[in-house]
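#dry-run=false #mode=assembly
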Amino acid sequence: MPSIVCSAQASYKKLPGLLELTDTHLQWTKTGDQSPVVKFPYAEAAALSRSKAGAEQVRLKIGLVSNEAGHNFTFTSPQAVALAERDKFEAELTTIIARNRAPPPQAQFPAVATSKARQVATPAPVTNGSAAGTPMRPPAPHARPSQSRAVSVASESRASDTPVGDSPTTDFRLRKKVLVSTPELAQLHRELVMGGHITENEFWEGREHLLLAQAAAESQKRGKPGQLVDPRPQSVDGEVKIIITPQLVHDIFEEFPVVAKAYSENVPEKLSEAEFWSRYFQSRLFNAHRASIRSSAAQHVVKDDPILDKYLEKDDDDIEPRRLREERVDTFIDLGATSVDHEETGNERDITMQAGKQRAVLPLIRKFNEHSTRLLDTALGGPSVKRRRLENGEERYAQLDLEDLHDNQSSAGIILDMKDRQRYFDGRANGAEQGDPEGPRVAFREALQQAKASTTGWSANLAQLRIEKKAGDAALISMTQNVQSRLDVKQRKHDIPEALFRQMTTCQTAANEFLRQFWLAIYPPANEFQQLSVATPAQKTAKALKMIAYLSKTHEKVEALVAEAQREQVDPNRIRVAMKPILDAVDKALSFWQFKNADKAPGVR
Amino acid sequence: MDKPSHLSVIVDLSPTQWAFCAQSTAPPGLPLQTFLSQLLAFLNAHIACKDENTLAVFGAFPGQSVMLYSSTGEAMTSTTEATDPNTYRPFKTLDSTVMSSIAERFNSYDVTEEEEPIGLVGCLTKALCYINRTISVVSASAQGTEGATRSIDPRILVLSVSPDQSSTYIPIMNSIFSAQKLKVTIDVCKVFGADNVFLQQAAHLTGGAYVQIERTDALLQYMMMSFLPPPAIRQLISVPTQDRVDFRAACFCHKRIVEIGFVCSVCLSIFCQPVPVCSTCRTKFPIKTLQRLNASRPLATTPSTPGTPRPLTQKNGAALPRPG
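#status=ok
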């Protein structure tokens, strides 16, 4: 019996019950029931939010990894007790969530193992180099998808800094992501792998680049958001709510250090956290921190608050900003340094381009500037990093040496060093010059005689030139037909019924995939480094055999499609023409296989 | 047709092939005489279309390529025919120059020698050089007015009866690339004989028309309909062409036409079998790769039928030749 960390009376979906936090799970049982309705392990908790302090109902919402909406629990005990209970739950869950978000990789596996005790070991089938494809095909294929999804869900809760190795769970996750992003691939996968024709590993054998691309895309981390922190209250049923998440709190402290100071001084001695926040959002301090200078809407909400008003600062609308920018001015482009030299003869001082003509706008502009500076500093690593001193002279010159000032130099390139030019340009093919196909041989001399004879008396011939009408018409008609058919093809609309067309496409893609597997088994691997599974020659032949069996059925499939087309009043020839390329490819593979086997059959030498 | 167009005609004049053509009954053949009269009618039609149209005629003879006529007057023969009041003079000059040049060439052959393959490639390159020269002259003179657009629309028409010569693969491909650069359209008219792979590719890559003649007695009808319109108005007057193009290439070592080959990843030269050192750029390939590739070669005796034509795919790795 797992020990219970905390429990509380809470209702879920308007039904009363008991919410319990054990040391492995969070569960909710309806009163009167024995088994919990909602139960999920620690690893699934992803997000936490709660209703506003001072709101009627004390609510706690837990978002899950797999289910964004999560579950809403309302604490039904009397107000104070409910608040305390909720706080306790919240504290526990926050630590759990934090742990979920950034765990060390090694600690994960035992954690996964224990929490996945109920699920049969699914990572096992995904071991690399699995000899035969059969362990992957459980007798009940429908059980497998649910298992695989559960494993991948667990692994999704890991942070993105898990290195992409041969870890089976990361593989699973990547595959799932790739399949989700390309629906055609997902369909192919569904048919072939779920249908049991091809094993999972074989399917991914030529497609490692997709997985690598996905892993690379995932390992890119998102930076800080560029927007100024500006929580807006939403009015729900007349009650104004702000959802406070730990992330929001963290952001507010970072953006407005005054609030952090106020928080640390007041909580928990003078105000509770809930009270602090509710008073903060109704205070003048919060109003001053808004990212818009239109204060008209908020006038009536703002109340005087004895504690928080102490932290009000004067508006930042003097001539100089309150926090001066610490910047080193570059002596080469210090425009201010030379103004002294040009006092008498220089330009007039500019009065047009002055920021913040309206005094009320100045605080906001300065706040934006500070926010941007902070963002850049975190991204680039602080203002002090760039000040590295080299040799005095070199550094100065290096500052002047702009790349745009360099001349355009065309590179000479590497000369192609051809040896044996004669052979390259000349070379007669051996025996390819046989001049006579079937037909009578004509000696050169006679041919030349004939040719010479043709050139004499040409003007008379020209005068007598006649084109027979029938021949001319026939030529005209054939050419017109040629043009017409091409025009037709361009204009023709796609009028094959949708279902038939889909069947055609699936037949083609399935045949393509079988062909790919077949040739993969026959030919040596294209790239020696990237290989998902190394198969012995015996396995390869077995795979080739299997593929040949599938490929032989392709002709029948096409015939079935043609028959169906006839039933649906679509010209069957069109179907045949459309499927012809894939049939040619299949025939080629089949003949290759037969030839190879026929070669081996009469005794091995 | 407001831009003057230039036409360069390359005539395949291989005596043996024409003898075959004259003798053949199925498909019905065409004697050289009739062919030449129809050709002359077509050439007259071209220069009649527009006054500024220019023409150049090249003849591909066994072992040589000759310019037979050019409207800028490079190929003038010594004898001139008497003026004929019944014929339009420019036509007469054109026809007589062409025919006399041809006769002269034929007479210059020594019958005891072996027949060499025709100089089709030579004609092609000469035509391209001629076009390049005339274009640059015209654009130099018309610089103020024309600006960026060229004032002449050039095209090349090849009338062919001979089959493919695989040794000409590389030069023909090079000419095709230069034609693409010069924006010259290459049309091909196959009067007699099997499909010519390289000329098909030439027509396809430069946007020209490839027409195979079925009724040779109506050759003029074919030529008028397919090859008279200049490229500029081909969007309005669609010309027939053959859509099936055989994209096979010839290997560089034996000049054989191959379907599956091995490509050097440095200089892109094609080989029919894996070689340890590329012959054009002298890149060395690792032994292990060669062994692996040798194991993967298609078995030599499977019949290599083209089936439905597909382009030859080339894959490049990091200095490794790979099966394409």
